[in-house]
Hints:
two-stranded antiparallel sheet, TATA-Binding Protein
Amino acid sequence: xxxxxxxxxxxxxxxxxxxxxxxxxxxxxxxxxxxxxxxxxxxxxxxxxxxxxxxxxxxxxxxxxxxxxxxxxxxxxxxxxxxxxxxxxxxxxxxxxxxxxxxxxxxxxxxxxxxxxxxxxxxxxxxxxxxxxxxxxxxxxxxxxxxxxxxxxxxxxxxxxxxxxxxxxxxxxxxxxxxxx
Length: 181
């Protein structure tokens, strides 16, 4: 689950964003099957690829592209990010892993479906995306994501909002929901 900053930037330039399940193989698949439409693909782990490069995540490429951008723009990374924030607004993201018992893992999806929250921290759920776990998009653009780890007894929680205070409130409600499963 990746930041909606990408959507905000793409929207400013009228570029389509395709969201995939977790796993770079899905991004590589789009790159191979739709090469003319593909510009860049990346995921939360920091790896990305671009049209004309290998269809695998490449953290070194991400670093080199950032360095090239700073050199061409003759700006620090801090200034580049400040310029992006002026263009799109503020996007603060955080992630937390909750260790859960195996029985919670087994019933997680059914429990969330049965008790789908209608709000978090007083913000109404506007949309629910179930492409990869559960992503609750809230009325102000904030969101909370929940998905099971594929390798450990964990529920991975993802949060994004325009302020740390909102994230803390949303996170508190989310943890109460998970504790009640």
